[in-house]
Design a protein that fits this description.
- Helix 4 crosses helix 6.
- The longest helix is centred in the middle third of the chain and has 24 residues.
- A hairpin with a 3-residue loop joins strand 1 and strand 2.
- It contains nine helices and two strands; from the N terminus they run αααββαααααα.
- The chain is mostly helical.
Length: about 220
């Protein structure tokens, strides 16, 4: 199996450090210091940090440089939930009308992976990565299936913040098992072809995820 490009490997190294908590919210990410610590040149690190910035997990400020994105405030979490509650149910409704067997099968695989990560997502970095990727893929698949470039664009505008939200949840509990149950309800509604039911299940899921986060960080 060919080795990943160095920038990809550095991205994975830094992402793992973010997931396992060795890099704390607000911590500076000095490229020179990282270069010495990881024994690589600065160029692949810049590429890796730029990718992480795009995902919302890392931020960059003029003169200050890169740093780990700060933890969400309660107000930010509430506002993000409000935006998701407008966009994602509409996407789910569109996707229910455009469902295909292949689409539904792909969603089912992500739910199996999410359930597999289970309680281990709270303590094990690999399990948390499985939770992270399967949860994101589930929502991305539904956004793509909606076949509405404007809704999908709005969804992706939020995606970096949602990634940050997932990482922020690692500070408490990922609740992967509960999320898998909610995803299955969404899948069942999508499979039925009922746009109203699909929208309602998605709305319930987004609200529940926000409520869990707020309870963890009240």
């Amino acid at each position: 199996m060919p080795k990943l490009p160095l920038a990809d490997r550095m991205h994975d190294v830094l992402l793992t450090q973010l997931m396992d908590g060795s890099r704390k919210p607000g911590e500076p990410l000095n490229i020179g210091a990282l270069s010495r610590e990881l024994e690589v040149s600065q160029t692949p690190l810049r590429e890796a940090l730029a990718r992480l910035e795009h995902s919302g997990l890392v931020q960059r400020e003029a003169l200050r440089g890169y740093f780990v994105a700060p933890a969400f405030t309660k107000r930010e979490m509430t506002k993000l939930a409000a935006a998701r509650e407008l966009i994602e149910p509409a996407i789910a409704a569109e996707s229910a009308l455009r469902r295909t067997p292949e689409f539904l099968d792909e969603l089912a695989i992500t739910i199996e992976e999410l359930a597999e990560s289970g309680t281990q997502a709270d303590a094990d970095a690999d399990a948390f990565r499985l939770y992270w990727t399967s949860d994101a893929r589930f929502h991305n698949l539904i956004a793509a299936q909606a076949d509405n470039m404007f809704l999908e664009s709005a969804f992706h505008a939020l995606s970096g913040h949602v990634q940050r939200f997932r990482l922020f949840m690692k500070a408490g509990h990922a609740h992967a098992g509960q999320a898998a149950v909610e995803h299955q309800r969404i899948l069942d509604a999508l499979a039925s072809g009922d746009p109203t039911a699909a929208a309602q299940e998605m709305l319930s899921h987004v609200k529940a995820a926000s409520e869990r986060a707020l309870l963890e960080h009240h």
